[in-house]
Amino acid sequence: MPERLNDRVEACYQLAEDFFKQPFKRPQVSLKLRGLKAGVAHLQQNLLRFNEQLYRANTEHFLQQTVAHEVAHLVAHQLYGPRIQPHGEEWQLIMRGVYELPPDRCHNYEVIRRQANRYIYRCKCPEQEFPFTGQRHALVRKGRRYLCRSCRATLVFSGEQRLE
């Protein structure tokens, strides 16, 4: 785990403790998030997951904004309970009041998508094809069936694959 990331999580908690005059339980922190999201706060598990690829490509902004964003979710949950809106007024209060940051809901980091193999399935409809992921293709091989929404025929693997 990068030291700067852990240091920023701790700094965010210390700011919240100074602001609210109470201690907060520290979360487990992971860099095992992939895909489009920069970070996720798992409220019930008191866990923060961050996207390592986006962290490395956008380190300074990520440390400043994304880490505070996710910590604010856990702090809001510990303060106000599970019934609050994820980006509601309680979370926004923490972002603005504690961290003095804009309560931005989404990042605008460039996400580099890796190419993935797609398995082409077809039905009875002309010119219709369905690119399946490897995971979905494996489910079909284990017996799962998928139907075309138009003709209701079972989708069948064509034998074709392509990179997308």
Automatic annotation (TrEMBL):
Taxonomic source organism: Pseudomonas saudiphocaensis
Residue ranges occupied by any SprT-like domain in the UniProt entry: 7-158
Domain of life: Bacteria
Gene: sprT
PANTHER family: PROTEIN SPRT
Annotated GO biological process: response to stress
InterPro entries: SprT-like_domain
One Pfam entry name: SprT-like
Name recorded for this polypeptide: Protein SprT
